[in-house]
Design goal:
heterodimer, A: about 325 residues, alpha/beta, Rossmann fold, 8-stranded mixed β-sheet, 4-stranded antiparallel β-sheet, 12 strands, about 25% strand, B: about 325 residues, 11 strands, globular, binds adenosine-5'-triphosphate, binds iron/sulfur cluster, binds magnesium ion
């Protein structure tokens, strides 16, 4: 396979200096997103999903963090050493972002139409009228019933689902090669979520746009992503096709997560909770970060496992000294 | 239901005045609850599902007496002679529902403290807090710590311990695990199930997470625009939904089995405004099966042919 990554992150470690120490938010993260591919990053709260997506776009406040190793490349641009000017051209152009709360990404005091045409004209040589026509056709693609009147409205006049569809329309306005979406539907109802995800996916497939999709919802990953990475305490612990990872998980953490889902349990039965809590990122163990909660740990786990293929002929990778040897889970 | 209800609601309505004119008189009303009638049996877990804004939290507030309904009656037929019993609530966000300036033992015993008009013995309260902490899986020696020293899941355990302190018969759980991670959610759901068994509690579990409701509840009520549109045995309602809204809701829940079909994008996903209530069936503008018959108001009617309860508010709902 000769695929070109639009995004590749290599062995990236990031920490936030705090009083007497550092929060080690990312620890040797390597991931890539190929052209046109939809790649999920799933993990629990605080595992480093948003830091990964913010770092890829260099949106973390300058001076608040330290890159201790590794690099990021988007379409050949070295992100860590890129100037703010380069980043501004990239953002909203070749790379677009969609966040959980669309309200923060829209200016509350300006009409949707002006905001859309401004962004479009910043990146594309179009006159006002052409930009407006493009905005209307993008809103139509997002199944917004009355695009002309939507352009005349303020963000607060739209429902959460409408705002998110406006942002997706905006994200696609410059034919991006990559969209980074951080929990774009977490705040939405399931009926709205389904609509938004289907529209996002259809448009991405049409334009061959790649998506890095951040979520904590396994079922959404299952519906939406081609491949998925599982993150725990700032490390990637498992990677592979959605089917491999969700239906035949090998890492004790991924298996624990799947077993804890009420979806897969008999109603009323005892759920299999993962004992304990996530480790403090400013006091991470030297070895495997999951060791204190892991049923399979041994002395070997005092060394940090790295993400490796489970056998030669597969893309299914796991970072564990004792990955489960098993058949598919009954999902 | 065969057993005596511990709680019954009759035609509960709640309207919030909004948008006042220059004299401060409301120009409009939010119709949050529009005729909720419900009986809750001792020891059951009733799940309440529905989309954001359908009135779930408003109902919780009415239940625990934080909010006076505009109309309708609520009868609580429990209450023990010692002044205990009654209802308690656990909220979604353990961060904001616990007073950050109080040590955990004071937080846990707060309902008892309030009920006793602040005349309590400190040693006895600390003892009680230790017992309750142990029951919810918090180390008893931690009761002098403050909320910020605990994780989200631990804070929710503390909120549950507080709800238990007043020895309630009924606990209203308003999205108790929505702010928690999957692995912690499993711990809390297990704890709730265990407490229910050991203390014969009645639960009213509000959640937008259908899987959580399926796992925890015997009965389910589906709400839409401040009304119950379907209610009955949990397995029955969730496996064989009869109301078109329940069908739509369940079809939208992402599953682990299947890949999203890329065929038809759902339309009409927005809830109608609750400022001006629709006439006829509240769901008709979004309903794929709407016809002229839906211009008439719909009533909840029994559709099960067995002795089981299964009611739906739609003339199309067929007997099971
Ligand atoms: N500016 C900062 N200073 C210190 N710590 C930070 C900063 N930003 C993030 N962190 C820490 O980095 C870790 C990873 O945070 P991140 O926001 O990436 O989590 P997440 O996986 O997106 O979680 P969630 O699901 O809750 O959004 C957390 O422990 C967080 O507290
Ligand atoms: N104090 C209030 N004043 C005016 N409107 C209110 C008030 N409280 C609630 N509402 C409105 O009543 C309706 C029902 O709200 P409620 O909080 O009960 O919904 P919910 O089902 O709990 O939603 P969610 O899933 O988002 O928690 C909403 O339209 C809400 O905006
Ligand atoms: S490396 Fe060891 S501790 Fe870590 S997940 Fe694997 S078995 Fe468990
Ligand atoms: Mg995040
Ligand atoms: Mg609510």
């Amino acid at each position: 396979m000769t695929q070109n990554p639009v995004l590749s992150i290599n062995d990236l470690s990031i920490e936030f200096p705090v009083y007497k120490g550092a929060v080690k938010a990312l620890n040797g993260v390597s991931l890539h997103v190929n052209e046109g591919e939809i790649v999920g990053v799933v993990g629990e709260s605080g595992s480093g999903k948003s830091v990964t997506s913010m770092m890829a776009m260099k949106l973390l406040p300058e001076g608040s963090y330290r890159v201790t190793q590794g690099d990021i490349s988007i379409l050949g641009t070295d992100i860590i050493h890129a100037s703010e000017k380069t980043m501004r051209t990239l953002r909203g152009g070749d790379v677009a972002m969609i966040f959980q709360e669309p309200m923060t990404a829209l200016n509350p005091t300006r009409k949707i139409g002006i905001q859309m045409t401004d962004v479009i004209r910043l990146h594309r040589r179009l006159d006002n009228d052409a930009a407006r026509q493009l905005a209307i056709s993008l809103l139509k693609d997002m199944h917004i019933a009355d695009p002309e009147s939507t352009l005349q409205r303020y963000p607060f006049e739209l429902s959460g689902g409408m705002r998110q569809r406006v942002l997706i329309a905006l994200a696609f306005s410059c034919n991006p090669r990559l969209i980074i979406a951080d929990e774009p539907t977490t705040a939405l109802d399931v009926t709205v979520q389904k609509q938004v995800l289907m529209l996002l996916k259809a448009k991405a497939r049409e334009l061959k746009t790649a998506i890095l999709f951040i979520t904590h919802d396994m079922a959404v990953v299952s519906q939406f992503c081609d491949r998925v990475y599982v993150m725990y305490a700032g490390s990637l612990v498992e990677a592979g096709s959605t089917r491999q990872v969700l239906h035949a998980p090998r890492h004790p953490y991924t298996r624990g997560l799947m077993a804890a889902l009420p979806e897969l349990a008999t109603p009323g039965s005892q759920l299999q909770a993962i004992p304990g809590n996530v480790p403090d990122l400013s006091r991470l163990p030297a070895g495997c970060a999951f060791a204190s909660r892991c049923p399979s740990r041994s002395d070997k786990c005092n060394q940090k496992p790295v993400l490796t293929s489970i056998h030669e002929a597969t893309t299914h990778q796991v970072a564990c000294w004792h990955p489960a040897l098993q058949e598919e889970l009954a999902v | 239901m065969t057993t005596m209800p511990v709680l019954s609601l009759k035609d509960i309505q709640v309207r919030f005045p909004v948008n006042p004119d220059w004299r401060g008189r409301p120009r409009q009303h939010v119709h949050a609850l529009n005729g909720i009638s419900l009986e809750i049996a001792k020891g059951e877990t009733l799940g309440i599902v529905g989309e954001s804004g359908c009135g779930k939290s408003t109902m919780a507030q009415v239940l625990i007496g934080l909010l006076q309904p505009t109309q309708g009656e609520m009868t609580l037929s429990s209450g023990k002679s010692n002044g205990k019993g009654g209802m308690q609530i656990v909220f979604q966000d353990p961060q904001s529902s616990l007073n950050p300036r109080l040590p955990v033992w004071k937080i846990i015993t707060e309902p008892v403290f309030a009920a006793a008009n602040r005349k309590v013995d400190k040693a006895a309260m600390r003892e009680l807090a230790q017992q309750l902490a142990a029951q919810v899986g918090i180390r008893p020696e931690y009761i002098d710590r403050f909320p910020h020293e605990f994780s989200g899941g631990q804070r929710q355990r503390i909120a549950i311990a507080r709800a238990l302190a007043a020895e309630p018969d009924i606990i209203v759980l308003d999205e108790p695990t929505s702010a928690l991670d999957i692995s912690v959610q499993a711990q809390i759901l297990n704890l709730l199930a265990e407490l229910q068994r050991s203390r014969q509690l009645t639960f009213i579990l509000i959640s937008h997470n259908v899987s959580v409701v399926r796992h925890m509840c015997n009965r389910v009520a589906v709400m839409y625009l401040g009304q119950i549109v379907e209610i009955g045995d949990a397995a029955q309602v969730l496996e064989h939904p009869a109301h078109p809204y329940t069908q739509l809701l369940l079809a939208s829940v992402p599953t682990l089995e299947s890949v999203q079909d890329e065929s038809a994008v759902p339309e009409n996903v927005e809830l109608p405004s609750n400022r001006v209530l629709p006439t006829g069936c509240y769901f008709k503008d979004r309903c794929p099966s709407a016809s002229s018959a839906c211009l008439q108001p719909q009533v909840l009617k029994q559709i099960s042919t067995q002795s089981q309860e299964h009611e739906a508010r739609c003339h199309l709902a067929h007997p099971d």
